[in-house]
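Need tokens for this chain, all 115 residues.
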Amino acid sequence: MKKILLLAMIYILCSSHTTFKSMLKQHKVKYHEIIYNQARLETGNFTSRGFKELNNPLGFTLNGKLMKFKTLSHSVVYLKDLQQRRMKKNEHWYDFLLRVKWASDVKYIDKLKQF
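Here are the structure tokens for all 115 residues:
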């Protein structure tokens, strides 16, 4: 029984992150490959509570707390809106992350590029 439950959990995790990747493309999110890898970094390879329970693959916060999205698709729509509102024309995603001080880790971009 435990083995079946474990396999079911692995399937759900795998399909969720695959679905997230396809949603990024479907919504024409800029730099979708980088953002997919960013989600891997932010969630510990899609294992975090934020990803599994809050549908929050990028660690979006509001007033210092992780935001909860109704679905994974809602978080992608939020991301797309963020890009449209906050990114400068022709700005690369790495430059955007630095400009908005996305992470406190000074090596965040280097870690992201390693994926």
